[in-house]
């Protein structure tokens, strides 16, 4: 199928993109990697009258360390981010999650910011941002503002972006050296949309107690969900089996899945419990084996 007719405009930097969004209003859509938007247009599920292509922008493609954080520009290709040594060293959960995001051909074109702005509640990158307490920088006619990840994602395919704002970058805290990470994902096939996903990062201090625990789940609510109660139960503990299992139960109690063709709500709840316990144990093993 082919998309409905549309007007094509190209922006050369973020400011020009904002100006075009302001000019055309709700009729316009941003074209970045196109891995989600173009199929939606081909199936007539999206009908923008104007496409604003930002592939020629020069100020939105970067990966850099910044005061204990990793900053990633919105137009950074997912495959570039997956293989970048600075990103992998600072936030090893990123390459681990990206390995589950579609297929290599998708990641070659798909952008970091495009996945975040699309806001699929089962997507890997939004779940990573929520898990690690990331922040997103957006720009509109009045300038820039920063939005915590948990406030950015509002509902399936809905964010806090205004019609004339564009996502510039995201900022994630650098994880302590030696942090163990794990992505556990249930999908029909590798690269498919996650039915349930769990992201975990765990760091143990010299006494074997958890001084950092970050956990989030995707595909089990209207947005990715950070599992604060499970984190609180595990923080400061030796992460024994009983504690991990109790935290996994608390995690399942924190989400509100619905039934669909891929599984019932009760099935998803059980998978959250199973995958949280599995992810925490695997992350502990990851740290103890000395991997990044």
TrEMBL record:
Lineage: superkingdom: Bacteria
Keywords, in A-Z order: FAD, Flavoprotein, Oxidoreductase
GO MF term set: FAD binding; oxidoreductase activity
Ranges of residues in domain FAD-binding PCMH-type: 1-177
Pfam families associated with the record: CO_deh_flav_C, FAD_binding_5
Entries under SMART domains matching the protein: CO_deh_flav_C
Gene3D superfamilies named in the record: 3.30.465.10, CO dehydrogenase flavoprotein, C-terminal domain, Uridine Diphospho-n-acetylenolpyruvylglucosamine Reductase, domain 2
Annotated PROSITE patterns: FAD_PCMH
Protein name from the UniProt record: Carbon-monoxide dehydrogenase medium subunit
């Amino acid at each position: 199928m082919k998309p409905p007719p549309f007007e094509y405009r190209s922006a050369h930097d973020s400011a020009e993109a904002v100006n075009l969004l302001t000019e055309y209003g709700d009729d316009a859509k941003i074209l970045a990697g196109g891995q989600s938007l173009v199929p939606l247009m081909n199936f007539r599920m999206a009908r923008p009258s104007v496409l604003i292509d930002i592939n020629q922008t020069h100020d939105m493609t970067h990966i850099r360390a910044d005061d204990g954080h990793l900053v990633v520009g919105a137009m950074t290709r997912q495959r570039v981010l997956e293989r970048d040594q600075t990103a992998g060293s600072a936030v090893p959960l990123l390459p681990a999650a990206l390995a589950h995001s579609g297929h290599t051909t998708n990641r070659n074109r798909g952008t970091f910011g495009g996945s975040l702005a699309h806001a699929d509640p089962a997507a890997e990158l939004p779940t990573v941002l929520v898990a690690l307490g990331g922040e997103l920088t957006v720009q509109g006619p009045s300038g820039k503002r920063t939005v915590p990840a948990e406030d950015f994602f509002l509902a399936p395919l809905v964010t806090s972006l205004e019609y004339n704002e564009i996502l510039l970058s995201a900022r994630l805290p650098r994880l302590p050296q030696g942090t163990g990470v794990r992505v556990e994902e249930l999908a029909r096939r590798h690269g498919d949309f996650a039915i349930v996903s769990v992201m975990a990062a765990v760091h143990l201090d010299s006494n074997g107690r958890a001084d950092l625990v970050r956990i989030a789940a995707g595909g089990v609510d209207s947005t990715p969900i950070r599992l604060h109660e499970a984190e609180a139960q595990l923080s400061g503990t030796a992460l024994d089996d009983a504690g991990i299992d109790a935290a996994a139960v608390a995690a399942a109690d924190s989400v509100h899945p619905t039934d669909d063709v891929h599984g019932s709500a009760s099935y998803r709840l059980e998978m959250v419990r199973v995958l949280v316990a599995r992810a925490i144990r695997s992350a502990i093993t990851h740290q103890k084996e000395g991997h990044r």
